[in-house]
Amino acid sequence: MRIRWSSDLETGVRAIDRQHEELIGMLNELDAAHAGGCPQSVLDDVLQRLGTYVIFHFGTEEALMAGLPHNEAHARQHRQEHAAFIDKLTGLRAQAVDNGRQTMETLIDYLNEWLYQHILKSDRELAALLNRKQAARPLP
Fold it and tell me: What is the pTM of this model?
């Protein structure tokens, strides 16, 4: 199942939306490489880039969260989701070394589902908090 970037996935925070679009592009690249029977080395390269970009993206979101007042519960939950994702990604990448095709299918399915759900729930909630903060800011 490929995710297609659309306005339905937008959070309303430009930096986050651009990064989500990039992540979805990488995920679709991984899916296409896997479906096309590319060698494991190609899949590993895409996974490495995806893993690096995910860490960058999570850093962006967490930096934005740090500037929000009274959001401890959301920030804690959101960071936990990020950490669990990194752990799962790391574990599945390690499994792919021994059982490449099967694990890669599991990994792609997991990435698609997780990213889609995370954007629609947690990231939209973060965006709402950021937008409320922006709206409450007095005009100069």
Answer: 0.86
